[in-house]
Design a protein that fits this description.
Elements lengths: L4 E8 L6 H9 L4 E7 L5 H11 L3 E6 L3 H7 L7 E7 L2 E3 L1 H12 L8 E3 L1 E9 L4 E7 L7 E4 L3 E10 L2 E7 L8 E3 H4 L8 E4 L17 H5 L2 H14 L6 H7 L5 E4 L12
Parallel strand pairs: 1-2, 1-4, 2-3, 6-12, 7-13
Antiparallel strand pairs: 4-9, 5-13, 6-9, 7-8, 8-14, 10-11
Helix pairs in contact: 1-2
């Protein structure tokens, strides 16, 4: 049997400030990367085109709706493929991902459905000292997205974006509860699968809010709820996400060294 492949799928909208670092750090982990731009109005499309021209096995896709990002990965259901979902506010430790890749290729996680990693939900970034402050998971929830598509036969239905919603059909021997919580097994300092989640930092000149609505706040409330959200967003496009504040600001604020996330010593901008 051939070793598993790892496919990264990045869903992006107005992420010009950190998206280059986000993609570069995840690139070495993946055998292929799909960069999906959802109608960005800042420099994100240009940056993605530059990345695709520079990096092999990277393609850019222009989307009219986030659900199209799920259409790109559905064909991998039932194959020996792992899917990593990446956002423009997620910066992974590249050395840690290299170790995680070896663990995946060795078959350590083959009997599971999804793997959750360690996260620092960043509230402040200090480039001079290469430190960041924020809230760790645990006690916050982990928002990493790493799925074993060998565990499912299909993933159809109403998917609001890649890896969210719909109805995955599991193969015999697998279930949605087959989860590995690495963030509960391993402390931040020694974790392989760890992420700086920049959800509380401004990420684009096109968006004022430093805590944007998440996908469920935007698309997950049914037709009437979605219409109300769109109207509210027209009058207040900078409205902050209550959901993120509830889920990602739990526990004490912690200061961590982020130099491993920037190995070439470049600033993230």
């Amino acid at each position: 049997m051939e070793p598993p492949r790892i496919v990264g799928v990045a869903l992006l909208r107005n992420e010009e400030k950190y998206v280059g670092r986000s993609i570069r750090n995840a690139f070495g982990f993946c055998d292929e990367m799909l960069l999906c731009d959802h109608r960005s109005s800042d420099r994100t499309p240009q940056i993605l085109d530059e990345l695709a021209a520079e990096l092999p096995r990277v393609t850019v896709h222009r989307l009219q709706h986030p659900r199209e990002s799920h259409d790109l990965i559905k064909p991998h259901a039932g194959t020996n493929t792992w899917i990593l979902g990446v956002d423009g506010d997620e910066i992974y430790d590249p050395a840690g991902l290299a170790r995680l890749r070896s663990r995946i290729l060795s078959g350590e996680f083959k009997d599971g459905w999804t793997v959750f990693g360690n996260v620092l939900n960043v509230t402040h970034f200090f480039p001079a000292s290469m430190e960041a402050a924020g809230h760790l998971s645990p006690p916050c929830r982990s928002m990493t997205k790493l799925y074993n598509f060998a565990a499912i036969q299909s993933w159809e239905g109403d998917c609001v974006e890649r890896l969210h919603g719909g109805d995955p059909v599991f193969r015999r021997g697998y279930a949605a509860t087959d989860r590995r919580y690495l963030h509960e097994e391993t402390p931040w300092e020694s974790a392989d699968f760890r992420c700086l989640h920049l959800c509380f930092l401004p990420r684009s000149s096109a968006v004022d809010a430093d805590s944007r609505w998440n996908i469920m706040e935007t698309y997950g409330r049914g037709p009437t709820g979605r219409l109300m959200m769109r109207v509210m967003n027209l009058f207040n496009p900078s409205r902050r996400s209550r959901w993120k504040n509830e889920k990602y600001r739990r526990g004490p604020e912690t200061l961590v060294d982020v130099r491993p996330f920037f190995p070439d010593a470049n600033a993230p901008i």
